[in-house]
Amino acid sequence: MTQQKKTDVTEQHIYDAKNVAGKDVHNHYYQRDLTVAEQQALFYRTTGISCSLPEKIELEKLMTDYNFTAKELMITRQAKLLVFDESSRELRLKYSSVTKYFMYVLFAMVAFLIAWSGSEIMTIYKIHLFPDNLIVIASLVGYGGLVYLFGRYGIWPFHPIQRLKSALQIGRAHV
User: Fold this and answer.
1) I need a surface site. Which of 38, 106, 112, 173 has the fewest CB within 10 A?
2) pTM (two decimals)
3) From CA 111, how far away is CA 137, in angstroms rounded?
4) Does an H or E element contain 128, and which?
5) Please, which residues have CB within 8 angstroms of residue 91's CB and are 6 or more apart in sequence?
6) C-beta separation of 91 from 83 below 8 A
């Protein structure tokens, strides 16, 4: 039995060098150990979350054990609803239910205001023909973009809060 030179990525074993065919060549993948900096960079590239090592461990636990997506965790972190407490070295939720419902009411009011103002402008200026109402259509599209951004950064971060709350309570109970 002969053995070829070992590389850092693969190792090739050749059994019975006279007949090198079929199942005689076995390639095995050996993953080298990543440094902490490389692990952090890999975590950032795959999730978009830049954080400390203890926080990364907690976030990975939420993703693997409780099926949270990286997007859910990233958006709640961006909204400062999910924060890492350095003193206790654990994740904490910082939000109030009043803020959540205030965001829903504010979202509904803004959407209603935009729809109402568009219809009023069209009625007052009698803009009902196609070339004239391009300004109104463009402004409504712009306002629609604002509503999307408001929903994305004001309302969407609150969706995984209840699941996060129960997952963090279960995680603390096991410690």
Assistant:
1) 173
2) 0.62
3) 15
4) none
5) 55, 58, 59, 62, 82, 83, 84, 85, 168
6) yes
